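Q: Joint fold for the lines below.
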Amino acid sequence: MSTSPPAPTLEAVAALAGVSRSTVSRVVNASPRVTPDVIAAVNAAIEQLNYVPNRAARSLASRRTLTIALVIPENTAKFFADPYFASVIQGVAMYLSTTDYTLTLLIASEADPEKTRRYLQGGNVDGALILSHHSDDRSYVQLASALPVVFGGRPTGQTGSTTYIVDVDNTAAAERATQYLIDHGRTRIATIAGPQDMSAGIDRLDGWRKAVTGASLEAGLIEYSDFSSSGGAAAMERMLASGRKFDALFAASAQIASGALGVLKDHGLSVPRDVAIATIDNDYYAQNSTPPLTTIEQPTTEQGGKIAETLVRLIAGEEVDRLTIMPTRLIERESV
Amino acid sequence: MSTSPPAPTLEAVAALAGVSRSTVSRVVNASPRVTPDVIAAVNAAIEQLNYVPNRAARSLASRRTLTIALVIPENTAKFFADPYFASVIQGVAMYLSTTDYTLTLLIASEADPEKTRRYLQGGNVDGALILSHHSDDRSYVQLASALPVVFGGRPTGQTGSTTYIVDVDNTAAAERATQYLIDHGRTRIATIAGPQDMSAGIDRLDGWRKAVTGASLEAGLIEYSDFSSSGGAAAMERMLASGRKFDALFAASAQIASGALGVLKDHGLSVPRDVAIATIDNDYYAQNSTPPLTTIEQPTTEQGGKIAETLVRLIAGEEVDRLTIMPTRLIERESV
DNA sequence: GTGAAAGCGCTAACAC
DNA sequence: GTGTTAGCGCTTTCAC
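A: Joint structure:
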């Protein structure tokens, strides 16, 4: 198929510019010690030939791949369904597009986790980004001793001195959202907590508990769910079936809130009159549901950018913070 | 930073297995003419050394990159905000994870479109995937003559003999959704159309028009929007401000519907009593809004898989269909 | 500041 | 069937 014209090589550029290949290479790599005239000549030749360096050759010779892997858990359905991740990836991709690095999506096979590990350690990428998801990110924590790795979201379990994390303060965020419900006169505050094998799930439950116990309210109105909408709906069904009374809900994610909200309405309950809702994530649902949701906004895109930046700097050997906490913001809407 | 132990080379494997490098290469690449014993010995050595082939070297020598680029328009915000794309990407990534290909996210800079084009033509990828988005995908149509390219969604403008497309029948989908409204007794059917520089926007408006004129109803109740929620809200505000009366809405996307639905409610209109809504996309909002939306579901993940498969087969030189139409499905919910 | 030469790790003829 | 020999296109010492 499609026989493209052979891409021009560095050699062709050198010939056209009347210099050696080394010089062209220096110009391409912005080496400081090249005469301005030469730079101009080489750039003209590059322009004229439409030269693009061959990544493979460059990578082979320089022993750097200029490639960063974004590791995605095998359960891609959940991953991609969550607008949070899309937004973070956007930030990552945008930041990397300002650098020479390329972003590769790597799906981690759960059937053969070694495959992923080997690929990453096999020298095919310069670093990896892990968007924390499952309990099973321990293997990735180990990975960090063999390869620059940055985590988006704190991984569960022991972290070592090579663990770099960009996260939000989930505990504080949850506490703030819950406190908001309390401040608005609610006294029986339920929560649908996220998975307790993910730090975001754990921390958000903690935050809720802090606020609730701090106000001497009942701390037992808990149902668990994954971060999905259907999980939230099922959890709310259980909550209602249990007969426990509540006048507010802190949902650990907007997707959970969306499922729960639908179930509340199905049962003839009004939001916010009967049940006020606060949650985390300012996604398209939180903004457009009926009523729109009071929520804690995470700077998702910026977070993605920060994750990528941290990794790039780490690869470059710069000193970077082991933990970066991104700010969050409360957004008041009609669900409370 | 992080000095990983030097990755074992093919040479090391050859030495350990007591064969030549070519033989190891043959085993790694599953060449047919190798003795079983030798294969076993080589595999044992590979296992023992934890050998992973170096992609750069392999690519340089074989002149194939085993990399596929997913081109993303610079306006990443809109791109990533749309659950449709996340879902398609998921399908792409999942399919590719079953192959040797790697998926690279490439952000097309609008400021310097040449950069993207050069990168793609520079021999750094074996093929490209374009998720149709902007009017400006004409340059990508040209690209297809230099590189295997598959479009997810029909690009606007002239397509050539090297244009491969995986799409749904947007006209039929829109017509079906609109007809559903008509069949349910609605007679004044408005539409918020998508961008008219995207084939999905154009075709969906066409489909609406077909159904409406087919039933001899008024075909002038049109507002235009991008595919976003805020665009849908603004369009609905204009629609209401214009004073035109309507009892149903066909929204060209679920995001548009979400924005429009909020505005309708703000104006005290009830859905479906005052205005019935049908749309396209079965995303998290369509499923969880109040009321849930009657919609046309596209097989997004499967579509992503099909796009990737088409490209891989195209690269392999196989004969593939120039146009693949994926089936859609009407989902009846409470918004009508 | 610039060029010459070696080699990154692999594949692909070509011989045997 | 397997080994030998050349490179793939670039970076990188090392001289000059």
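Q: Anything notable?
A: Residues 9-11, 21-22, 25-26, 28-29, 53-54, 56-63 of chain A lie near DNA strand D (CB under 10 Å from a C1'). Chain A has a mean pLDDT of 92.
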